[in-house]
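Good day; I would like, with your permission, to put a structural problem before you. A protein sequence and the structure tokens that stand for its backbone fold form the material at issue. I would ask you to consider whether the tokens describe a fold that such a sequence might reasonably adopt. I set the record out below, with my sincere thanks for your time.
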Amino acid sequence: MTRKSPTIQAPLRIAAAVKRETRTQFAALPFRVKKGEVEVLLISSRDTGRWIIPKGWPMDGMRPAEAAAQEAWEEAGLRGRFYDDVIGLYSYSKWLDEDLSIPCIVVVFALEVSHEDTAFPEAGLRKTKWMSRKKASQRVDEPELKQILLGFDPERLK
């Protein structure tokens, strides 16, 4: 019998990338359990207002899940327990301007929210909304993110 040992994430050292190369971003899937039901939090994007999850670029010296948790605080004021295990991947095109987009692969980590700050860097720039996994899956555009939301089960994190 073998025991599953936890994967340890090392802090990243970031090298410069060529403008049109595929980039990696880290995202948090914020969740809570309220009255026995799992809810996830979506935020609006700053440019188009579409529903997304908090995400951003790797941060030098931070583990991937830490960077995702940092983005959740900066974009939505969320604090809580982050999990180092990847719960999914999805892709999208990030538009840098109206003529240039770059392909991005987003690595998603769960964030169990215990506190919502009212003061945070992007306060007032985005809408936030708690909703069921099913409703959230209907609000996001990316097909792989829809599947991550529908299949998310916090019981698998324990």
Notes: Residues 19 and 156 are 37 Å apart (CA to CA). The first strand starts at residue 23 and ends at 34.
